[in-house]
Amino acid sequence: MHVAMVGSGYVGLVSGACFADFGHVVACIDRDSGRVADLRDGRMPIYEPGLEALVAANAKAGRLSFSTDLAASVAKADVVFIAVGTPSRRGDGHADLTFVYDAAREIAAALDGFTVVATKSTVPVGTGDEIERIIREARPDADFAVVSNPEFLREGAAISDFKRPDRIIVGTDDMRAREVMADLYRPLNLNQPPMFYMNRRGSELTKYAANAFLATKITFINEIADLCEKVGANVQDVARGIGLDNRIGSKFLHAGPGYGGSCFPKDTLALIRTGQEAGAPLRIVETVAAANDRRKKSMADRVLAACGGSVTGKTVAILGLAFKPNTDDMREAPSLDIVRGLVSLGARIKAHDPESMAQAKALAPDIEYCEDPYDCAAGADALVIVTEWDAFRALDLGRVKAALREPVVVDLRNIYRSEDMRRRGFRYASIGRP
């Protein structure tokens, strides 16, 4: 099948490369000519494990190409995906659909023969209806169906998630479109992932509901962690105790500094706005978003307490800047709130991250960036672990202690054992543990 992927960012690039790896012929389209040139030369705009090799292999095989020419690619396509950004709209937090609707207008002009237009972008309920209206108005003669096909990709594990999905959701009432989408995903039949068909609005809402629920689990265990600290319990024990209940499950029950990234913050806000506009306010989700925002801002106070109540004139080393491991994504990362909070309290910041420092420098240009964890720790009065990269899980603790001016470690991801750290002479603080 021929696939046109409009948008070559995180979702579009990963999805396009994976569809090409299935054997489809995929053209990834982007307005940014510099990005297209980089992709043709094998340079990735994002860090995602395995992506560079996957793109190179399929480009070499002639199944994956990159272009700024939307019209030519759409005219040949059986399926056109809209995979452009839907950032939070400034002022009200709703999803900004400017890029989605611009793409729909361009697609309309290029349609040739029956074509499925599928939204991979995360969009509010009813967006598919508006896309259909835009295309129908521009091209009354066009033969097409608009489908919702949301992505459920975790940054850092996106290729595996695409090739071994928990489920594939297709929102359409058009039987021809269902057949096309079934053919598109047929290479996954051996893995037998559930393929759920529902109406378009249900599919659009499912994506938001999934992200809001996961954000709720994270926020819930973070608040339980705070309670554990007050009553002398261990949040890791509590999380395991409830996670073994298959009605709850163990995933997303790891206490930490709060959620960030490109999805949960903006999607919870967009869902909140949708509920308000529909007259069905989502009070739980509203509370989750507010609690998470407070939590990220409060993490600097934990470092302050570990440093004896003052960081004025002190140096704090930050390990991990990306919002999670195995990505360079700095969007809404907790590290940004922590850095801003500590700087406002008078601290000097050193930082290291295996992949995201180039992105971080644009957001926090006035801190010192270090080449490795030990350089980062050198001369610091406290070391703060913010992102649980594998490279930080087995540090040479003797070397870390020797590098630090004061043996203070604040572990916001609970990757070390409290008793081990104290036995080695560290003043150690973690999340939700006695």
Q: Your description of this structure?
A:
This protein has 434 residues and is α/β, with parallel strands linked by helices. The protein folds into two domains: 197 residues, NAD(P)-binding Rossmann-like Domain (Rossmann fold); 166 residues, NAD(P)-binding Rossmann-like Domain (Rossmann fold). Helix content is 45%, strand content 14%. It has 17 helices and 14 strands. α5 links the parallel β4 and β5. α1 crosses α3, α4 packs across α5 and α5 packs parallel to α6.
User: What is the CA-atom radius of gyration, in angstroms?
Assistant: 23 Å
Helix fraction by DSSP (H/I, runs of at least 4): 40-55%
- From the spread of the alpha carbons, the general shape counts as globular
* Name of the CATH class of the largest domain: Alpha Beta
In spatial order, strands of the major sheet run 3-2-1-4-5-6
Poorly predicted residue ranges: none
Can you tag this structure with a few keywords?
single chain; 434 residues; alpha/beta; Rossmann fold; 6-stranded parallel sheet
